[in-house]
Design brief:
7 strands, 14% strand, binds NADP nicotinamide-adenine-dinucleotide phosphate
Length: 263
């Protein structure tokens, strides 16, 4: 008969304190790569998403690799706003403490260049923005009262300019970036670090079928860049880095030229 006992928790010692992280949107792509990277750095993780099979397989893989309990799955739809404060408390009691909170959940529902679709826009705003607010408000309040914690939001270079291709995705990421900046300006005085992540094109399901992509990076590279920025307590990070300089130029392209660029 297989041994059904849960793996033991990672031990806490002065040299190996147990750091803990919550990752919303962990089942695939950048989120799954981040989970593997953070577990490799010794974090104990609460991993949240809707797809049970993917999430369970990821937790099993992480726990087997570590030889101890490092990752626990929590089935969750970020549109389930009402249940978020309760779920946060459950996770807090399971992990014992929370050092790092990452909001990565995101969708992109592109519409044709001549089409407009409010249902798709609504879903994009609900997952990319409203779900983020529903989670980050109680997390910010908790970290503020504890004077401890790090918050990471996965935004996008897409939020830096309004392109013709995917208006509501651009708008959701622009709003998320602004919200994260406001949180940072509120929380820095309490010792809380807020990191805004702006990936360019990353090879994931979200990018499937997208045209005109370039400088495409792997999820592992994105995860490494993000974890380095977390360690250095940066305020923002572009991945890959060259997007920071590209955006300096792109942000200054006059509108009458920018609107002719189909991307
Ligand atoms: N790929 C890129 O080129 C790129 C570029 C810039 C920014 N980003 C951002 O990076 C983040 C991760 O995306 P990805 O590229 O890694 O795509 P992905 O593989 O599709 O990952 C999206 C994640 O969000 C979760 N998610 C979506 N809707 C959810 C919901 N209602 N409730 C809970 N979780 C939900 C998904 O889990 P379930 O489906 O299992 O719920 C999945 O774990 C997104 O915020 C995206 O906007 C991606």
């Amino acid at each position: 008969m297989p041994d059904a006992r849960p793996l033991p928790l990672a031990p806490i010692t002065p040299l190996h304190p147990r750091r803990t992280a919550v990752l919303v949107g962990a089942s695939s792509g950048i989120g799954a790569a981040l989970a593997r990277q953070l577990a490799g750095e010794g974090y104990c993780l609460a991993l949240l998403a809707r797809r049970e099979e993917l999430l369970t397989a990821l937790c099993n893989e992480i726990n087997q690799t570590a030889g101890e309990l490092r990752a626990r799955p929590y089935l969750h739809d970020v549109l389930d706003y009402e249940n978020i404060p309760g779920l946060l408390q459950t996770i807090l009691s399971d992990l014992g403490s929370i050092d790092l909170f990452i909001y990565n959940a995101g969708v992109s529902h592109a519409v044709g260049l001549k089409k407009f679709d409010f249902r798709k826009d609504l879903l994009t705003m609900e997952v990319n923005l409203l779900g983020a607010l529903a989670w980050l408000n109680p997390v910010a309040a908790m970290f503020q009262s504890l004077k401890h914690g790090q918050i990471v939001g996965i935004s996008s270079v897409a939020g830096d300019r309004g392109r013709v291709g995917n208006p509501s995705y651009n708008a959701s990421k622009a709003a998320l970036s602004s919200y994260l900046e406001s949180l940072r300006n509120r929380l820095t005085k309490y010792g809380i670090n807020v990191l805004t992540v702006k990936p360019g094109f990353v090879e994931t399901d979200l990018l499937a079928g997208a045209k005109g992509t370039f400088w495409v990076i792997s999820t592992d590279q994105a995860a490494r860049d993000i974890c380095k920025a977390i360690r250095k307590r940066k305020q923002d990070v572009y991945t890959p880095r060259r997007w920071r300089w590209a955006l300096l130029i792109i942000r200054n392209i006059p509108s009458f030229i920018f609107r002719k660029l189909v991307f």
